[in-house]
Amino acid sequence: MTSFQTERLTSEEYRYIINGQQSEIKGNGSNPVKWYRLFTFRQTWALITGKGLIDPIFWFFLFWLPSYFSSAYTLDLRKPSLELMIIYAATTAGSIGGGYFSSLLIKKGWLVMKARKSALFIFAVLELSIILAQFTTAAWMAVGIISLAVAVHQAWATNVFTMASDMFPTEAVGSVVGIAGMAGAVGGILFPILVGSLLDSFKAAGNLTGGYNLLFTICGLTYLTAWTIIHLLTRKQSTVKLNELQ
């Protein structure tokens, strides 16, 4: 045991973590994983979907919400905004709660992938609430709805990342998470182009808020779309064996 360990980390857990790290470094005596082969597996594409379609939505929430509140509710962006602080703080609750929820289902005896996908489905349904943002009449109503949306997003992201270790052997987890993260980054590059184009069009028509309303609808529906694809890709076989990657 070393000084950085906490009382909640048992000796057995510590050994498991360290042994896992050492086996990855040494290769565990087996041939290295051919990362390009990961693209031949449905499970990889499930993770690419979970990150590639959904990460851009979170970047939209991060970067475009100040503009939305400024145009829809005349929020003064020159001053600290309690509304935005609350929204971004909600992401922490979602990150913790999302992981806890699926873990709770597993502790109750659910199969791991059933628990993960059930959690993702619930989060996808909850995310539909962001569509209601277009019907709000007060800034604090929007804060409540959008806070729920970003918290649910983080709950989704937590479970997608965890699915990588559920579906792939330890030796491949780092590579597949990297690929999924790359997909999210590419989506994060492309989606703002769509956002900017839509908002410019609506602004030219004198209805900038209408552009945000359309984007909120797209965001709400994308999670269910992503869940459907993930479910179809992992329905027949959810895990990949190490020998299949070499």
What would your notes on this structure say?
The protein is mainly α and 246 residues long. The chain has helices at 11-26, 42-52, 55-73, 82-107, 112-127, 139-167, 170-204, 208-234. α2 packs antiparallel against α8 and α3 runs parallel beside α7. The longest helix is centred in the C-terminal third of the chain and has 35 residues, at 170-204. The two termini are 35 Å apart. The model is unreliable at 23-27 (pLDDT under 50).
Distance between the termini: 35 Å
Largest sheet: none
Poorly predicted ranges: 23-27
Question: What portion of the residues fall into strands of 2 or more residues?
Answer: under 5%
Task: Sketch the topology as an H/E string, one letter per element.
Answer: HHHHHHHH
Count of helix runs: 8
Summarize model confidence as the mean pLDDT: 87
Would you kindly provide a brief summary of this structure?
With 246 residues, the protein is mostly helical. The chain has helices at residues 11-26, 42-52, 55-73, 82-107, 112-127, 139-167, 170-204, 208-234.
Descriptive terms for the model:
246 residues, mainly alpha
What is the element layout, followed by pairings?
Layout: H1 11-26, H2 42-52, H3 55-73, H4 82-107, H5 112-127, H6 139-167, H7 170-204, H8 208-234
Helix pairs in contact: 2-6, 2-7, 2-8, 3-6, 3-7, 3-8, 4-5, 4-6, 5-6, 5-8, 7-8
